[in-house]
Amino acid sequence: MEHRQAYWNRNVFWPSGKYSVDREFPSMSAEAMSFSTHRLHDRLESVLFGKDEIDRRIVEMGEEITTDMEGSTLSVVAILQGGALFMADLIRQIHLPLRIESITVASYHGGTASSGTVSFRQNQMPDVEGRDVLVLDDILDTGRTLSAVMETISLKCKPRSIRSAVLLSKRIDRAVQIEADYSGFDIGNEFVVGYGLDYKEEYRNLPVIGTLKSEYIDADS
Ligand code: IMP
Ligand code: MG
């Protein structure tokens, strides 16, 4: 932990110490590097997926979607805020013309367990009439969010077709029976942060996905 802080001070934080990564840590992989240079990383108990692993999986998902959706009039709709980072990376791996849209919902309301209600937080629905929609979310948990969004878009926006993609899928008995058409990784029933996933709206900017140390989770969560 200490050497990580020293590394940060010397090479990243202070402009005088340039990025002499190879010289300083010749044996560290790029994956370990992205993991160790982010200062929020010290708050993680464990890392489930490193940056390179996420990048590789998103390339694969993009290839699959490109093949499946060739010839579509594609609109990608990110569920905000969590789906924003996934959308930014995934659309650059989809080799088709596409439009981007978003929809804002909340279901956790600040804790580490789904509240059971999905609130839509916007006045205008995405403009996807007659288009082939791909809804993106960071994670599929109870299924309430994705099913509410899919249903609302289907009913109110008149898309030609609708599919879904999530980066993570929890292996649990869902409150609503729904699976995504494309899923990056399966995880157990644990609360994770990073790469768009938040705890109390923070940690979305971590480049990796992991679990938080208990001291960073409030007792009432
Ligand atoms: P669901 O409605 O229970 O399927 O949950 C989906 C939403 O809950 C996602 O869009 C996330 O915002 C949030 N969520 C579910 N699991 C986690 C987690 O482990 N960490 C952070 N957010 C989560
Ligand atoms: Mg979310």
Report on the architecture of this protein.
The chain has helices at residues 2-13, 21-24, 30-36, 51-68, 83-91, 144-157, and strands at residues 44-49, 74-80, 98-106, 119-120, 132-140, 161-170, 182-187, 209-212. It has 221 residues and is α/β, with parallel strands linked by helices. The chain folds into two domains: 2-37, no CATH class; 51-216, Rossmann fold (3-Layer(aba) Sandwich). It has a six-stranded mixed beta sheet, with helices on both faces. Helix 4 (51-68) packs across helix 5. The longest helix has 18 residues, at 51-68. Bound molecules: inosinic acid and magnesium ion (MG). Magnesium ion (MG) binds at residues 79, 82, 138.
Descriptive terms for the model:
binds magnesium ion; 221 residues; 6 helices; Rossmann fold; binds inosinic acid; six-stranded mixed beta sheet; 2 domains; alpha/beta; disordered N terminus
Secondary structure topology:
Layout: H1 2-13, H2 21-24, H3 30-36, E1 44-49, H4 51-68, E2 74-80, H5 83-91, E3 98-106, E4 119-120, E5 132-140, H6 144-157, E6 161-170, E7 182-187, E8 209-212
Parallel strand pairs: 2-3, 2-5, 5-6, 6-7
Antiparallel strand pairs: 1-8, 3-4
The chain binds inosinic acid and magnesium ion.
The gross shape turns out to be globular
Largest sheet: 6 strands, mixed
Average predicted local confidence, pLDDT: 86
Compute the gyration radius: what is it? 19 Å
* CATH fold description of the largest domain: Rossmann fold
- Class by SSE composition: alpha/beta
Q: Which small compounds were modeled alongside the protein?
A: inosinic acid, magnesium ion
Q: Low-confidence spans: pLDDT under 50, at least 5 residues?
A: 1-28
Instruction: Determine and state the CATH class of the largest domain.
Output: Alpha Beta
The end-to-end span amounts to 27 Å
DSSP strand (E) fraction? 15-25%
CATH architecture of the largest domain: 3-Layer(aba) Sandwich
Please write the string of helix (H) and strand (E) elements. HHHEHEHEEEHEEE
What's the helix count? 6
- What topology, given as strand order, has the largest sheet? 4-3-2-5-6-7
**Could you tell me the number of beta strands?**
8
Bin the helical content: 25-40%
